[in-house]
Amino acid sequence: EWRNACACPLLNINGGIRGMLQSVSLFDMDTPLSTPCNIQICEVTCDSFRIMWDMTPEDTEKATHFFIDLSRKESRDHNRFKHRDVPTKLVAKAVPLPMAVRGHWFLSPRTEYCVAVQTAVRQPDGDYQVSEWSQVVEFCTGDYAMEHLQQLLDKANGSAGRLLKFSVFYRNQHPEYFDYVRSEECGGLMRPALKDSSGSHGSPINGKLQGVFFSCNTEFDTGLPPNDSPYGPLRFQIPAGQLLNPNICLYFADFYCMYTAYHYVVLVLAPVGSEGDTFCRTRLPMLDLASNPFLTYIAPERPEEEPLYCHASDVILEILFTEPVHLDRGTVEQISGHHQLMSLTTANAKKDPSCKVCNISVGR
């Protein structure tokens, strides 16, 4: 009886404690979560980023999930590379911050995004208690890293084809361009211009590296440059050795197509130690002048021999030379073609994001 008499109050006390814990738990569940603040984005790449924000210790302890709302920043320049069928909201289990976000969206390189977050507690019935949305933070994804360009280079290697001999680089333009180059303002110099946005969206040279574009592809039957051009009826030709020699560094910059069967490879020629060389050295894969599938210089073995210059046969090469070139180093002549093939111009052309040949497994 003593034991029973003592047991009853003890049971009542324990029951009271359990009741108090349940009420506290319900009280915590009903307590609003604070709004995440001080959103910070870091370690941004072309297809990932890390995000963190400030939470109260109480919220940090009880939050079970994070909601992240990501959307492309609206602009007049519509981003054709954003996939339409990708959800814009991510529900992730709560982890220590900063949290890495990648693989959940097909993020595009060099694209501005808006992001906001909520913290949440999952309840026993499956519903969520959520905080208010944080303020919206904007950030921009980055360029392709060296590892991504190496993936592009590996793909381009398989499309290059056999090497063909050539002897000149050439640049096609309209008469107005050469009139301007000959003007007092330019003094005969073709000055470097900023690379446009054509090709892969994440190429590090787009809008950042200056240069003068040249071609070197030849016709199979003649071994000479083609008679037609999408860029104009006048052609500046310069001996190959003026731009491609042992004092030049060769870099791979891009591989792309424009919804066509043929592909383009963008290469950069930069004099050793120049600003262009410094820019490319940490951003682009360097190619061996004597041994690569796109553009080669083979030094002569004997004094009386000439160097051998070769270009890839199955891709269209776009050569960006990073220094000014004077017209006196070559000749300007009219080409004999009767049409200009304007559909082949690559000015600000967009890469086909669905092509399996020239796309890699990161943002387009």
TrEMBL record:
What are the residue boundaries of the Phytanoyl-CoA hydroxylase-interacting protein-like C-terminal domain, all occurrences included?
Answer: 140-364
What would be one Pfam family of this protein?
PHYHIP_C
Checking InterPro entries in the record gives: FN3_sf (IPR036116), Ig-like_fold (IPR013783), PHYHIP/PHYHIPL (IPR042868), PHYIP/PHIPL_C (IPR045545)
Q: Which GO terms describe its cellular component?
A: cytoplasm
- The residues forming the signal peptide are none
- Keywords of the record: Glycoprotein
Name of the featured protein: Phytanoyl-CoA 2-hydroxylase interacting protein
Give the organism the record lists. Oryzias sinensis (Chinese medaka)
